[in-house]
Structures are given as structure tokens and as C-alpha cells.
């Protein structure tokens, strides 16, 4: 049995018969949404055989199976990051587990810096596209044909219909939702002011150290993707204070309230009326 199959079998055995339709990945400081999941079974990553673990403060490290907005979901409360030394194989196990459990789409959240003056800490920015500035691609190596093609498309990687639905719901419930291009970097150091100026010229609206590998793998195996950045700070050089991980968590919590509402209502709407 492969590691991947062992992981999926173990998870399935924890909530027999349950099939999630949506995978939800919660970023730094956004874990509280996990507490709103109903009929939940919580499975610590540490108990899942061969499952990748996160060492970052603010990440709980558990998988939650249950319903949110009546939608059956599998929620990753915590994720792995490239800057922790995670290998491509860890990212693949993480995302493909959601696919093999039955998910059709993933909602990915993260903490990001804003490169746009009018979108500040505590606000939400939906990701419309990304620039992979990590210069790494998690699919380098032999292609695993059972998951997807050798060369897969990355246009419309962030599903246009899901984006429209999220905008419609945000408008309806009065939550400001910006939209922009995500610059994916490796970290772990924050950027220099010169880098931030350069990334702005390259077309980025927000920046962070996650999401890109997950989206590449999700699209490879045919999962639809929606991603929302919770803005925790302005890019370096755009604000007076220096960046800290604590600041990221603080503003993440402020954005988390709106993010929780937006995601819950959107799942509810998708459950009623799929798109
Ligand atoms: N840069 C990179 N990653 C981040 C930032 C940032 O400004 N804020 C939150 N994650």
C-alpha cells in the first residue's frame, strides 16, 4: 500500500461513510474557522500515518471532517510550508488527500502582505492569479499519471465561477473583498523594501509564503480552486513598523471574522446552488 493510500484509509476510518465535497486549508491565524465546523471529527496530523506536519506557531495541525454551511468539508487546520523545509512530496500528500477523500474543490486561505495602499491590515483579498516567485515547482520529477497530465494548464487556476460566487456573497453580506495577484515567495525572511518595489512592478497585489505549491498540485489533479488572502500587513517599506509573525497573527484574527462569515455563507450557497 502506498503512503498516500494509507493516509486516506486511516482518515476515512475516522468518520466512516463521510464524503467531503470541499477541502478547506486554513492559514496563519485563521484556525478559528475550524471551531465552527459541525458534527466534526478532529484528527491531529500527528496521528495520521506518514502525514506531513507543520511546525509554525498559530497552526494547530489537525484535519477536521464535518459540515460548514451544510456543506460536507475536510478542513486542514494548519499546512506545510516550503520554508520549513517541506519537500514537494509533503505538498502532494497534503492536497491529494483532499482529492482522494472526494473533494471537488479547495478553498485556500492564507496570511498575506498587501502591496496595494488602499487594502490594509485586517482586510480580505481574493486571489485572481499568482506569480510563482519561489522558482520551485512541486511537480518536478516523474509525472504521476493517475493524478493528472505531465503539462497542465494554469490559466484560470483560480476558478472564475467560484470567484464570482464569492464576490456576490461578499456584496450580499457587506464584506469588502478586494481582488488581486498573489506573489508566492519562499520566505522565511520577509522582503526588503527593494524587493517589494520590484514585485509591484511585476504585477503583484499581495505577497505570501504559501498557497502556490498547493494550487499547482490541486489544478494538476483537477480540483477547482478558490483562494482568499487575509491581509495582515503592508509590504515592507509601505508602513512604519517592522514586520513580525505576531503582527501577522494579530491582524489575521481581525480578518478571520469576516473570512469565516464569507466562507460559511459561500459554502451554504454552493450547497444550495452549485456552480
Ligand atoms: N511577506 C511575505 N509573507 C507574508 C507577509 C509579507 O509581507 N505577510 C504575511 N505573510
Can you put this structure into words, describing what you see?
The protein has about 280 residues and is an alpha/beta fold. It is about 30% helix and about 25% strand. It has a five-stranded mixed beta barrel with strand order 5-8-7-6-9. Helix 3 (about 160-170) crosses helix 6. The N and C termini lie far apart (about 35 Å). The model has no long low-confidence stretch (mean pLDDT about 95). Hypoxanthine binds near residues 208, 209, 233, 243 and 248.
Primary descriptors:
275 residues, alpha/beta, 5-stranded mixed β-barrel, 9 strands, globular, binds hypoxanthine
Helices and strands, in N-to-C order? HEEEEHEEHEHEHEH
Largest sheet: 5 strands, mixed, barrel
Mean pLDDT: 93
Going by helix content, strand content and strand pairing, the class is alpha/beta
Shape type:
globular
Low-confidence stretches: none
Radius of gyration: 17 Å
Our measurement of the CA-to-CA distance between the termini, rounded to an integer number of angstroms, reads: 36 Å
Total DSSP helices:
6
User: How are the strands of the largest sheet arranged?
Assistant: 5-8-7-6-9
Q: Tell me the fraction of residues in β-strands, as a range.
A: 15-25%
Number of strands: 9
Helix-residue proportion: 25-40%
Q: Which hetero compounds are present in the coordinates?
A: hypoxanthine
Amino acid at each position: 500500500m502506498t503512503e498516500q493510500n494509507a493516509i486516506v484509509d486511516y482518515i476515512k476510518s475516522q468518520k466512516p461513510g463521510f464524503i467531503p465535497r470541499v477541502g478547506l486549508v486554513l492559514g496563519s491565524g485563521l484556525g478559528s474557522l475550524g471551531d465552527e465546523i459541525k458534527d466534526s471529527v478532529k484528527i491531529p496530523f500527528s496521528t495520521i500515518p506518514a502525514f506531513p506536519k507543520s511546525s509554525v506557531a498559530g497552526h494547530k495541525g489537525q484535519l477536521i471532517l464535518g459540515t460548514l454551511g451544510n456543506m460536507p468539508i475536510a478542513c486542514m487546520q494548519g499546512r506545510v510550508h516550503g520554508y520549513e523545509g517541506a519537500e514537494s512530496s509533503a505538498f502532494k500528500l497534503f492536497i491529494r488527500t483532499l482529492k482522494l477523500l472526494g473533494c471537488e474543490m479547495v478553498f485556500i486561505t492564507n496570511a498575506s502582505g498587501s502591496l496595494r495602499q488602499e487594502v490594509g491590515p485586517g482586510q480580505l483579498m481574493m486571489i485572481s492569479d499568482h506569480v510563482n516567485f519561489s522558482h520551485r515547482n512541486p511537480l518536478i520529477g516523474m509525472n504521476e499519471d493517475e493524478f493528472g497530465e505531465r503539462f497542465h494548464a494554469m490559466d484560470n487556476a483560480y476558478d472564475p465561477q467560484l470567484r464570482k460566487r464569492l464576490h456576490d456573497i461578499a456584496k450580499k453580506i457587506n464584506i469588502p473583498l478586494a481582488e488581486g495577484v498573489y506573489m508566492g515567495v519562499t520566505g522565511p525572511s520577509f522582503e526588503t523594501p527593494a524587493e517589494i518595489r520590484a514585485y509591484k512592478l511585476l504585477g503583484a497585489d499581495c505577497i505570501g509564503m504559501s498557497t502556490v505549491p498547493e494550487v499547482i498540485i490541486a489544478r494538476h489533479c483537477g480540483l477547482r480552486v478558490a483562494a482568499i488572502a487575509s491581509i495582515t500587513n503592508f509590504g515592507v517599506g509601505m508602513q512604519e513598523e517592522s514586520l513580525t509573525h505576531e503582527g501577522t497573527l494579530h491582524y489575521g484574527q481581525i480578518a478571520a471574522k469576516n473570512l469565516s462569515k464569507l466562507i460559511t455563507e459561500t459554502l451554504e450557497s454552493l450547497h444550495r446552488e452549485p456552480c
